[in-house]
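Customer escalation, tier 2.

The customer says the design service returned an amino acid string that "doesn't look like it belongs to this structure." They asked us to rerun it and document both sides in this ticket. The original structure tokens are below, unchanged.
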């Protein structure tokens, strides 16, 4: 039980204000399907954190920090550009998104978690407790609580807030994360 509770608390706290919480808010605002987005977050988190708790040692010993920072920088800058693209769902009526809210959320969330502090925390906690399944359960629950707040807040605000401003602020934050990752890669 200590592995589950410890993992939950660590990830729930570290996810607050994290880029993936921002991504959850953005996806909920974009698709306006909070339960579908939360389901996508769940699937991506289980996959990502199971990977982290199972092969964390291999990643930490074989992928240089500089390379990981560069990959993250490219992803963040890409997320920033994607965020700037106006939502075409409003312009195209009821036409579904190209890959759908669920698959888009799964793919983006899985990639965003690669090398993220919550993934690294998952690796560390799994190494400490030697219980990858319990750690994955705890970290996934922590992610769902933190990101669930962002999903439902994003869904509620999407009808009341000018989405152009939300897109610009969100994109600016992703660009900031990208620049910080570039700086880390350059310094590394």
């Amino acid at each position: 039980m200590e592995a589950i509770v410890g993992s939950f608390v660590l990830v729930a706290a570290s996810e607050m204000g994290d880029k993936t919480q921002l991504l959850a808010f953005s996806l909920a605002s974009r698709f306006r399907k909070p339960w579908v987005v939360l389901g996508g977050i769940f699937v991506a988190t289980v996959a990502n954190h199971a990977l982290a708790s199972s092969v964390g040692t291999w990643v930490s010993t074989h992928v240089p920090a500089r390379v990981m920072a560069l990959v993250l920088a490219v992803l963040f800058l890409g997320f920033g550009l994607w965020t700037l693209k106006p939502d075409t769902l409003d312009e195209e009526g009821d036409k579904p998104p190209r890959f759908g809210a669920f698959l888009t959320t799964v793919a983006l969330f899985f990639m965003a978690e690669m090398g993220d502090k919550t993934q690294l925390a998952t690796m560390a906690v799994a190494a400490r407790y030697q219980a990858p399944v319990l750690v994955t359960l705890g970290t996934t629950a922590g992610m769902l609580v933190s990101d669930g707040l962002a999903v439902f807040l994003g869904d509620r605000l999407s009808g009341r807030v000018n989405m152009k401003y939300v897109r610009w602020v969100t994109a600016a934050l992703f660009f900031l994360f990208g620049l910080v990752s570039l700086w880390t890669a350059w310094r590394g």
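Tier 2 assessment: The sequence is consistent with the input. Confidence is low (pLDDT under 50) at residues 87-94. The two ends are 38 Å apart (CA to CA). Sent an explanation to the customer and offered a walkthrough call.
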